[in-house]
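Morning!

This is the sequence you dropped in the shared folder:
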Amino acid sequence: MDRGVIYVATGADYRDLATASARSLKAVEPDLPVDLFTDAPEAVAAGLFDAVHLIANPHDRSKLDCLSLTRFARTLFLDCDTLVVRPLGDLWDLLDRFDLALAHDVRRASDLIRAGVSVTTPYAFPQFNSGVMLYRRSPAMDAFLADWVRRYVAAGLYRDQPVLKDLLWESDLRFYVLPPEFNLRRVTLLDAWEPEDARPTILHSHRLMDHMRAGGERITDVVALMDAERAALEAEWDAAGGRDDHPVARFDPRDGG
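The structure's back. Tokens below.
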């Protein structure tokens, strides 16, 4: 099959999130095949996913095992904490030229997102967010995915992105950096963009998991998501000492920063 979307979800909470994300996708792309990889296929209600695949040996990064198992020639992998708000359009055409497309992560000035495993890269080459990835089946991509699994296991890390950064820096794989509207991690950019700046397509926010982490309200729509993201932004700046100083200097490292 030429193109489709896959989710990887282990546990009831993540299956629930994947279901909500897939529903948002189907609302704007009703004919696009969507598959789910999960540890409990019997718990998935019929009718939404076109195919449900068993994860026989689930672990914290089961997605790395599942990426190469896609039945599609062109695949969009989506994390469960996403909402698709616009048709994907000609996004797929990127794979006429590239094997992989993904976006930079946020918090690029932090040690967390600067980190690799064995490679030090320039500031302008931070980690890439692995929660939205568009890729095609090719010998080069198959080898890349296999190497990612092997090196992730060898590194013994929880996060997969430090290994991914090393691989992308060292590899000759043809990859493209997506504009942020296709993996909008900092959703409050919607407040700053001018009308012709972008067409928001995929929103990707941990606020969609707040009910799992802190027992808060379940967020299911974009309006509630924006309210939560605005509040989180203000709390972040308050914790850093505020942002009433110079609009550039406020980003300089502070005590312990």
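Headline: The chain has two domains: 3-182, 189-251.

More detail when I'm at my desk.
O.
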